[in-house]
Design brief:
The protein is α+β, with helices and mostly antiparallel strands and 170 residues long. The protein has 2 domains: 51 residues; 108 residues, Glutaredoxin, CATH 3.40.30. The protein is built from 7 helices and 4 strands. It starts with a helix and ends with a helix.
């Protein structure tokens, strides 16, 4: 009888300790990450409910190449800009660091961007977009003068994009 009593008491103690460990770990898991000083990982079964504060490493910078076309030279100019960007920056386009955006002369978006950048079509604007907002931009204002010489035009676009990216994106 004494032996059975010891086994039952030992069993109850083990269950009590397991319960304490379980409830203690559950309470700590629900504590905010800022209190513990450690960033919480998202739960396995769904997304994190509270986004972590952005830091410099998490802010994604995207270079948008805006191509403003005039109605007379539109398609030819657009094709040259696309050729320059696609031939020089295929990897950046593929991984989403760079985007080409052709602005249609008749679109409502053109008016908003015209007020913001004040380009004289045909022209190319390089803009760094950070968290959906334009952080910095550059008007490649010599594009209209170079459109007659294809190689000069392509080199002008690629060189300026490369310089702009080195200063503002990487």
């Amino acid at each position: 009888m004494n032996r059975i009593r010891r086994i039952v008491i030992t069993f109850l103690i083990v269950i009590a300790i397991a319960g304490i460990i379980h409830f203690t770990s559950e309470k700590n898991a629900k504590e905010p990450a800022a209190v513990k000083g450690v960033e919480a990982a998202p739960p396995v079964d769904g997304p994190e409910l509270r986004p972590a504060a952005p830091d410099a490493a998490r802010i994604k910078k995207i270079l948008t190449v805006y191509c403003f076309t005039g109605s007379q030279t539109g398609k030819e100019f657009e094709l040259l800009v696309k050729e320059a960007v696609e031939s020089g920056f295929a990897a950046e386009l593929k991984n989403g660091v760079m985007v080409i955006k052709v602005i249609d002369p008749d679109s409502a978006e053109k008016e908003t961007l015209m007020q913001k950048f004040k380009p004289v079509p045909p022209s190319v604007i390089l803009a760094v977009i950070v968290n959906g907002e334009t952080a910095t931009w550059l008007n490649l204002d010599k594009t209209g003068n170079l459109s007659s010489g294809k190689n000069a035009f392509l080199n002008y676009i690629r060189d300026n994009i490369r310089d702009f990216m080195e200063k503002n994106v990487r």
